[in-house]
Design goal:
heterotrimer; A mainly alpha (about 450); B mainly alpha (about 280); C alpha+beta (about 350); A: about 450 residues; mainly alpha; 2 domains; two-stranded antiparallel sheet; 22 helices; about 0% strand; elongated; disordered N terminus; C: about 350 residues; alpha+beta
């Protein structure tokens, strides 16, 4: 008689994983989803990120002229005038005292003034309770405005109710509600903008330049450092490796500060060049080419160290007997590098390249600190553009929606590429069953 | 390593290409204590005035000491949380069997490779909603979350090197899986734990973009944003010797920690660091 | 305590590794699970100790069914191939760990650790760390740790594989001594026939997830149930020769081996002869002729390969001193009482 034993449910595993799960879902997966969500809104500083209210302003009138709202509606909005009604009188009583309101009621109850001047004159012409100051008269006139213009409504219902009493054609109400809403709305405009703006193509080009040149520098120079230090005594090699590793360890802000000093018009390059009669200038920002060179070097000096470590350990893994054999066979150093060492580095090079491609595509920290995209947007890469659009620009109107659309492109690239990494890893071995079956 | 080739040409070449970095390091050190005539490279007097930011709070934006304390809280808290969450999660992924284990494993690989900085706009808005914008707590949580996949991945690597037989022996000796982890496996990954702790601390100490975007106010500023203020504010007079002193003050803990724990850290830097 | 495995089945991801295996190990007996790698012997061991779960069948320790118990509740001691000592604890703590888990008081623990350390001859090593010990010493510690809480069954997974030749010899007898002194029921997993034969009361020879033969070592050597068993035991290995029954002889080419008295075979029938090297030589007659094609001088003995006319090779082991040369023609004989006969499919006749 045989019995099949059920595998026990292992709570320990899920329990051990739970804290990580919670944090990752809240602050990792949620932002991924939210990026997609924000990319389809028109959120910006002016719309705010929560809901909005309803307000028709003069600028809205101008843009309404381009919609299907009828001319009558526009006219009604513009010239709705001032109606002496109970509500307005009550407001007047509150502002100027009930006596004034009563007198005004006697003279003008039910009247309609089409222009503000007429309304103000009527207020001026009160006999017993004249409102003397011009400012007060202006304010008082406002109390009788019968238009929905320049009034803030908290909810759509309130706004529609006001529209109903204003006598504006019902057919145009929806258009007006849309126009008056100050909060954010869903839109696909961001994506259309991305495709049509010439600047986004320029950012893409800049990114291509940035990634390809920096990557070439990183891998090439990393290889050079790894191979050259391999041929030195351990002590000397360690010194050089430390020199080249420090940029990775140092805080980015300090590291870029050093480059400022190096390239500034009072910095060391200008000072040295001054000995040869060259006028001091800002070598980082004076021309676009210089800016690119500096940006690539700043990133490259940091990136090369990663290649240096990975390649160095790969070279160390080459059996010494193989190298000795090649020397016995009469290989010179170049031949040894070319035929023994480089072939062993194929995988590390591929790994480093693909890994750095993704991180360079999305990184903008050093560029932000160094050129901030300048001069004149020459070094503005895609990721930096997303940052500038959504989080920091001189105009002050931060377009979260458009910025998120920029970021969404990178997020999608990131996800697709990360999925490809799954193939890189020996996934079968990785997910092999735990050997203790309980 | 091999004696058949001469090393002098290599050393010469390396020295030339390393010169810019060495010059930067040396002058960063020297300039913080000296003054130099314009147009000259050799300092002509010793001074401590570049360190005045330590005692006069009006030099930078707010007090450097507040920023230092903030940086320390930020870096140490994230390091502690990242390490303690990673240490259990990584063990589960490395050794325990549970439903959807494959899914979680592939998830962690994807997250590990995923460029987190692309999420900053969404995170900025989420923090606004949660009311955690411009607070140290907000940045700490975000930094922890973004660092976590890396921490788990690294810790899993350390767990993977512990022989299965140790755990099998523990189970045979009557210990529960939890006890096996706690008493037998955890001591084996102690070096990894320390390395991850130090690494996340350094990473937090150096973090710039998250505080810049998520905690821009001067109350919650950290040293990176304190220093960046000098660089990014165009209205300030450029005083590199002062900037360098601030920078050096900021970087000294990093350099010390790196020099002391160099060997331990190499493992992590090579094992899949970003950038 | 008796161990009884019935109808045991184990699959890994839909591959059946062991299908319906039965095995009984008697109280106090030392049983070898012997077989080539991949035969399922380690899987069986890991299932008995509870690290693997059974997909079918039952496992009893005495009257107690343990089929579905986790390792922690089975009371099995295991010695792993790489010893699996806890590197961060000293030897005393290593041995005490199973007792600490049981939350015994410290004086009891100290006493038990001392007792077991004396049994395995390591009382002087208790304060060292595993990394400071030699392989043989680590092996003793692993044994002590496995035995300290008086397990019902002791399992040994290739315990000698990581030792050098000399230590292996020493530990072979040590493990057997300790097993006999404690009287514990033990299972030894090994791919080394010498280990199995020299240490164990009985051997279960496994192949492809099945037990091919289960018997005492000498019985298995002298009376193998098929060519696999015959070929697996013995070093240098047995030689197989295809032959025909010709009257009172087995004939192959011009050579013949007499059929032992009392045995009857169908005349003209084809079969395989299994000839062990110690049963082929000049002392057994002159009916088999061939050329010496290989000589190996081992000091006490000499090994020869003799190639017959039809190309078949028969190995022989001779006392040293014969000094035959490569290429020499010899006429030797086969001991007819000891020759093993198999049908062409490999089953014993």
């Amino acid at each position: 008689m045989s019995r099949i034993s059920k595998p026990r449910f292992n709570w320990l595993g899920l329990g051990f994983l739970a804290p990580a799960m919670i944090v990752v879902v809240l602050f990792f997966l949620a932002p991924v989803i939210m990026t997609a969500f924000f990319a389809f809104t028109n959120m910006s500083t002016s719309t705010g990120i929560t809901g909005g209210d309803y307000l028709l302003s003069q600028s809205d009138l101008r843009s309404l002229a381009n919609t299907k709202a009828s001319a009558a509606t526009l006219d009604a909005l513009e010239n709705a005038g001032y109606r002496v009604d109970d509500a307005g009188l009550a407001r007047l009583a509150e502002a100027q005292g009930p006596a004034t309101a009563d007198e005004f009621r006697k003279l003008h109850e039910g009247d309609l003034f089409t222009s503000r001047r007429d309304m103000e004159r009527a207020l001026k012409d009160l006999r017993q309770h004249r409102i003397r100051s011009t400012r007060d008269r202006k304010l008082a006139a406002e109390l009788f405005t019968s238009s929905v213009m320049d009034q803030r409504f908290d909810t759509e219902e309130a706004f529609r109710a006001a529209l109903m009493t204003s006598g504006i054609e019902a057919a145009d109400h929806d258009t007006l509600v849309d126009e008056a809403y100050t909060g954010w709305i869903w839109t696909t405009k961001n994506i259309e903008l991305l495709a049509s703006l010439s600047s986004s193509w320029r950012y893409a080009m800049n990114t291509a330049i940035y990634v390809s040149f920096t990557l070439a520098f990183n891998v090439g120079f990393g290889l050079f450092l790894a191979i050259s230090t391999f041929y030195l005594s351990p002590r000397v090699a360690a010194t050089f490796r430390t020199i080249w590793f420090l940029p990775r360890v140092l805080p980015p802000v300090l590291y870029v500060l050093m480059w400022y000093w190096l390239t500034w018009d009072t910095g060391i390059i200008s000072t040295l060049a001054g000995y040869f009669g060259v006028a001091p200038r800002n070598w980082m920002l004076d021309t676009g080419t210089n800016a690119w060179v500096v940006v690539i070097l700043i990133n490259g000096f940091v990136g090369a160290s990663l290649g240096m470590i990975l390649f160095s350990s790969a070279i160390k893994a080459i059996p010494a007997s193989m190298l000795h054999a090649s020397e016995v066979d009469g290989a010179n150093r170049w031949q040894q590098v070319r035929y023994i060492i480089l072939p062993q580095l194929r995988w590390p090079i591929l790994f480093t390249s693909s890994y750095q491609t993704l991180s360079l595509l999305t990184s903008f920290e050093y560029i932000l600190l160094a050129t901030d995209g300048g001069p004149g947007g020459t070094t503005e890469v895609w990721a930096l553009a997303a940052y500038h659009t959504a989080l920091n620009n001189y105009g002050g109107n931060l377009q979260y929606g458009l910025g998120a659309a920029y970021a969404l492109v990178l997020v999608v690239i990131g996800i697709v590429t990360s999925l490809l990494y799954l193939r890189f890893f020996n996934f079968r071995e990785l997910v092999s069953k735990p050997r203790i079956e309980q | 390593m091999t004696a058949n080739f001469r090393s002098m040409p290599v050393i010469a070449l390396l020295t030339i290409v390393s010169l810019p970095l060495v010059i930067m390091y040396v002058f960063t050190l020297v300039d913080t204590f000296t003054n130099t005539e314009p147009g000259s490279l050799v300092p002509n007097e010793f001074t401590t005035e570049h360190w005045r930011f330590l005692w006069s709070p009006d030099v930078g934006r707010g007090s450097v000491w507040v920023a230092t304390v903030n940086t320390f809280i930020f870096a140490s808290t994230t390091a502690l949380i990242v390490t303690s969450i990673s240490v259990t999660a990584a063990y589960a992924l490395s050794r325990l069997d549970f439903p959807a284990r494959r899914f979680f494993l592939s998830g962690i690989i994807i997250l590990h490779a995923f460029p987190t900085i692309t999420l900053i706009i969404a995170i900025f808005l989420i923090l606004q909603w949660l009311g955690l914008f411009d607070t140290l707590i907000g940045v700490i949580i975000v930094k922890t979350a973004l660092e976590l996949p890396f921490g788990i991945w690294i810790m899993k690597g350390f767990y993977d090197t512990v022989p299965w037989e140790i755990e099998m022996a523990g189970v045979q000796d009557g210990a529960s899986r939890f006890m096996v982890w706690h008493k037998l496996v955890l001591p084996q990954v102690q070096p990894g734990l320390a390395a991850l702790l130090i690494f996340s601390f350094l990473s937090g100490w150096s973090e710039f973009l998250l505080p810049l975007v998520l905690a821009p106010g001067s109350d919650s500023q950290v040293l990176s944003t304190y220093l960046a203020y000098f660089l990014l504010d165009d209205s300030l007079e450029v005083d590199f010797n002062l900037f360098k002193s601030v920078g050096l003050f900021y970087a000294v803990p990093v350099i010390l920690i790196y020099l002391v724990f160099q060997k331990k850290l190499m493992n992590i830097y090579g094992g899949g660091s970003k950038g | 305590m008796q161990l009884k495995l019935k109808n045991f089945t184990k699959t890994f991801d839909s591959t059946t590794v062991i299908d319906g295996m039965d095995l009984t190990v008697n109280d106090g007996e030392m049983m070898a699970l012997l077989g080539p790698s991949g035969c399922g012997k380690s899987t069986t061991l890991f299932t008995i100790c509870g690290i693997h779960r059974m997909n079918g069948g039952t496992l009893h320790f005495g009257d107690r069914e343990v089929s579905n118990l986790p390792s922690q509740q089975r009371n099995v001691g295991v010695v792993f191939q790489n010893y699996a000592l806890y590197p961060h604890m000293d030897i005393r703590d290593n041995i005490a760990f199973p007792l600490r888990v049981q939350k015994l008081d410290s004086t009891t623990i100290a006493r038990k650790v001392k007792e077991i350390a004396e049994l395995v001859h390591i009382p002087e090593l208790l304060d060292r760390r595993p990394a400071q010990l030699s392989g043989g010493q680590q092996q003793r510690v692993a044994l002590a740790r496995a035995l300290v809480r008086k397990p019902d069954v002791l399992l040994l997974d290739e315990p000698l594989a990581n030792l050098d030749a000399k230590l292996r010899l020493e530990m072979r007898s040590e493990i057997r001594r300790i097993q006999l002194e404690t009287g514990i029921t033990a299972i030894l997993v090994t791919h080394d026939q010498v280990e199995a034969m020299s240490m164990c009361d009985r051997i279960a020879l496994m192949k492809d997830g099945k037990i091919v033969q289960l018997s005492e070592p000498s019985e298995m050597y002298n009376n193998p149930s098929n060519v696999f068993v015959a070929g697996f035991l013995g070093n240098p290995p047995i030689s197989f020769v295809k032959a025909q029954v010709q009257g009172d002889d087995f004939g192959f080419g011009n050579n013949r081996v007499a059929v032992a008295p009392g045995l009857k075979f169908r005349v003209g029938g084809a079969l395989q002869l299994g000839i062990r090297p110690e049963h082929f030589g000049p002392q057994f007659g002159r009916d088999v002729q061939g050329k010496i094609s290989f000589v190996e001088n081992q000091g006490r003995e000499d090994l020869y390969n003799v190639t017959l006319e039809n190309g078949v090779v028969i190995r022989s082991i001779q006392p040293a001193g014969t000094r035959l040369k490569l290429g020499e023609t010899v006429s030797w004989g086969v001991s007819s009482e000891n020759v093993l006969t198999f049908d062409l499919q490999g089953a014993r006749l």
